[in-house]
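Q: What does the assembled structure look like for these inputs?
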Amino acid sequence: MSALRKPGRFKVAVLVLASVLAVLAALVWFLNTRGEVDVINASMPAAPADQTLVERGAYLARAGNCAGCHTARGGEAYAGGLGIGTPFGTVFTSNLTPDKATGIGDWTPAHFWRAMHNGRSKDGRLLYPAFPYTSYTKVTREDSDAIYAFLQSQPAVVQPNREHGVGFPYNSQAALAVWRALYFRPGTFQPTDSRNAEWNRGAYLVQGLGHCAACHSARNALGATTTGLGLAGGLIPMQNWYAPSLASPDEAGVGHWSRAEVVSLLKTGVSPRASVTGPMAEVVLRSTQYLNDADLDAMAQYLQALPGMRSETDEPDNASVAARVPTTTLPPKSGTQPPGAGEGSVGGKLYAQHCAQCHGDNGQGVPNAYPALAGNRAVTMANSANLVQIVLNGGYAPATAGNPRPFGMPPFVLVLNDQEVATLLTYVRQSWGNRAEAVTQFEVHHVKTGSSSQR
Amino acid sequence: MSLPGLLLAAAAAFTAPAALAAPFEDTIAQRTMACTACHGPQGRAAPDGYYPRLAGKPVGYLYNQLLNFRDGRRHYGLMTQLLDPLSDAYLMEIAQYFSALEVPYPAPLPAGSAELVRRGRELVMNGNPAQKLPACVQCHGQAMTGVAPNIPGLLGLPRDYLNAQLGAWRDGQRRAHAPDCMADVIKRLSSDDINAIGTWLAAQPLPADTHPAATLPAPAPGYVNLPCGSAPLAGQAKAGTTAAPGGTR
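A:
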């Protein structure tokens, strides 16, 4: 006789399950609405915003790089329509111009603040965290109002928002609510008393409008940044670029740089020890190059003070490169030359033919033009995705006010096959004192065929 | 050096763009080596298509193409990625550099059937009044070397590349700034027309003066009024739509 044949027990089981689900649902609802901005009594501003507020909002919108996502390729500024590729489908950005029908023309400052702070739209819908309100929640009400004033001053563009390409169950409000209950805690930035004002300003910018963690932190299987690890690096979803750790001295940690070098990198895209390329070039081009020196200084101070991990090598980057014996990952067999080592190898020949004319016979580069490869952390860091991207697709540093005519690298995807790219990169990563793992043909193929964002 | 290594290096040398041995210079030529690696001095055929000649093209045309790739009116991933980090002013400088380059043209390739060539010449020189199709020379210059600053010459390009671009316009894969006059023209061409035009053009030798003409030719019989759009050149005031080629509207 099975217990299920007794109707009483079955009913109890169903009731218990229903109660548990109800409690969980209530918990999710509570976590989603706790402390949320009240928009019941929201009203439009009494008078048009003064020019100072609009200008401050324009500056802050640059800091947050709103236009970078909310402007489609070749589209009107802030009118939305750009597809952001995520592992759950494509999310299309919304129209932020003051058009009343298709933009945010009839949003009040409170509605805008609620979107920034709580990730909820004017009509009450929960927003996809592709809009990084997980970072923007730290922005103050005053700054949000300034950005609101700036956006309301932009030309209105009639452009209906595109329907998202996110499939079930990820497109349901219930799924979003659960995600937010697990991974999102709204809250304005709280200064750390033991740190000075400059550090706190830098922290506010990096953690808030800068939303650096959106790329520079790893994401779990549900797409949430695992903030416990700080800015410890992450592969940007769908784009196959790796945003390096800002804490590790082996990747992009800047603790041992001078303050001026850090500021130069963010302001101009180039600095004595590194230059930006790929997605970070866009960040500098559209956002950080417009920040004033005080704010860049503050961000530099914050970044330089990030708790770093111990270096895996004992050499700082760009150490002097007197003639060194190249290292390999395999012990050399007698009578054979180890793969990737020595100028006479296949990798050495490829380098001499394709790379040496710009990057130098010894990987020394040309100052302010072509980065040195010897002692370059971008070359030796563990994740090789960026190296593969650069060799396959080439690239320019961003044309900023401080570096308006950058030098560029051509694509090699049609000149070198996967094995040649792997051999070449292995050579570069293991020559002139560089000590890094070999690159495999599989890694090259994976980066080449990985899907990219809609942009 | 082992024999397989030697053969591999030799094969790589023949398939790769020529490596320049010149020392580093702080010039625009050095900065645009990222471009000439694929486009070569005279344009180059590649596994995935043809990279057209840049030297001597009208500056406005080159500038507009750079904007088109960046803004999604033309589609080629490598171009888009290269241009994304660059500013309008820098793209203008790059366009000016290539526009001013003087590089000889290669000899034209032999043409196809006589009928195709005859038909192509007829369409290019006289258009097709029955279809209200303007002659190509109406806009691209009597010598088909283009008109400064925005209209490209069409000589010295391979037939397959010309066919592909006209085909891309017809399929909406390539667009110009609105109003897109080429899209208008293409609607009045059949596939055979396109092939005839491409065949005839590719077979034409370059005239002694390969530079773009300074002005449009005078309107001829069969003139069709066509407004054409283009982006204002960086550093100039907003231009909007240019007047219809051949005269005022």
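Strands of chain B lie at 44-46, 49-51, 146-147, 151-152, 228-229, 241-242.
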